[in-house]
Amino acid sequence: MEDTDYDYKLLNTIDLPADLRRLRVEQLPQVCSEIRHRIIEVLAEHPGHLASSLGAVEITVALHYVFDTPYDRIVWDVGHQAYSHKILTGRRDAFSTNRQLGGLKPFPSPEESEYDSCTCGHASNSISMGLGMAVAAKQQGDKKRKVAVVIGDGAMSGGLAFEGLNNVSATPNDMLIILNDNNMSIDHSVGGMKQYLLRLHTSKWYNRFRFHMARNLNRLGVLTEKRKNAILRLNNSLKSLLTREQNIFEGMNIRYFGPADGHDVIRLVEMLQILKDMAGSKLLHIHTVKGKGYEAAERDVTAWHAPGMFDPKTGERLKEEDCGNLPPKFQTVFGETLLELARQNQKIVGVTPAMLSGCSMNIMQHEMPERVFDVGIAEGHAVTLAAGMARGGLVPFCNIYSSFAQRAYDNIIHDVAISNLHVVLCLDRAGLVGEDGPTHHGAFDMAALRTVPNLTICSPMTEPELRNMMYTAALAEGAWVIRYPRGKGSTVDWRTPMETVGVGRGRKLRSGNRVCVLSLGAIGVTASKAIDKLAAKGNSIAHYDMRFVKPLDENILHEVAEAKYEKIITVEDGSLSGGFGGAVAEWLQDHECHTPLHRMGLPDHFVEHGAVNELYKLVGLDQEAIEKVIE
What we know:
By secondary structure, the protein is an alpha/beta fold. Helices cover 39% and strands 14% of the residues.
């Protein structure tokens, strides 16, 4: 799909930001146009995060034009904004390998480039990270280093962002925060901050007056740190009179500039050149359009957040069609089942932190909007909100991606588990998720949660099992965790009547007397295929789908321990350290079972990015690897 006729006249001369800075400012709009074309061209054939990066082209070019990177630090929040940054920082020719096994990483990473100041796969960490860098520079006497933070795609709704702002206001620093306001995360942004930013406006006269006054005071040396607070108080009073709008940022002693057009690169350069050397913390609020420059993405930004392959000329998405002879995604089964349960039980509600469409809770929202709560990028709040709902008599299904749930660990323990509240925590994207890499793999949930008292933790092997676990959890008491993978399952006819599952009860899938395989979750399908292949050759292999990691099915474990197998094999798609296999090993040791145990799971290192099947082969959890261990 590469457009061989397109002339990257300027972009091909930019190997590093130093080359960009040699251009005339009047040439920057053309650079932006070429970058935007390159992103569309590459992502059409090599899928990635399209819309967010298209919206951040101009601010990226302006930042690298004004700041002396990599000496000056640019901190990205939600790294899928940063494709332009990758292209401008020595990775232009390798950009087509982005998110592929062995290719460029999906998000900025210091391991990949000195221009990447930090890892940024999760949202809302940029202000805290940037402040730490700014403080470090001051502590070490480095007065010239500048730090600029770009926070966007709804990340300002996250609690960590507010914690960072609170500390920025009380810690001496010269950091520049750029609020890339596109009114979006993956879905539309929600909450009070969204409403505040929609209301926040500055008249053209006031904006021009404020900006030029700040520039002139700075040139005269009047705008010193010592006088900043008094000037801010005068400014707040002036703004209240002119606009009748209070400014939350200036109320925290962070000088506010904007809103500005985030797609006017020449104007952005002008503003950044002035703000760069201005003492004290300041915030530049820019308005951008997610998907800017590509009509299809601008029309439907949620669908084009990460659209997969598409025809760049027509805007047609080249996706695999769902049809009757293919199994659905686990996410679809979750969304449809939650709606079924909610129709049966008026107490059931849905809670999600900004992942309505990703987890398919939008299916329930479409029919029952008053019973679905999207809380923004705030996983900890989502869990505690669900706890409060449960305390009030509701049955909340709180859906969070496994890797994002790490940020709600304290809330799960303190607000749910200790009181054993009836919250059903659904961990989507458990196991390896593929091209988004180590910041998104759901590797650690079992190891993190199985030691927490009062939690019931289960994982379905198939889509009907997911339905049954959700049904059981809705009728049960106490705190539940249901973990399941991303993408398509294995069962075509999944709309079976829901049945309760015995808590802590697994199921025997195959009898055998030589080797016993205990699997947990969807990885059991791969194990089953390996067992079927070996059984066809005369091997006698037992297979149990354990279903629960907490509580373990002790009846099955007693049966296995007494059978005197040659070896027992555990298979899981979570961290081998502290996970399901570890729980089985502990039980076997406690019950003095000396049958050799071989545990298969994710290794004790971060797994890179790549296609899911490639990664499972890489870590030795593919069908062939399981066959070898069984033999």
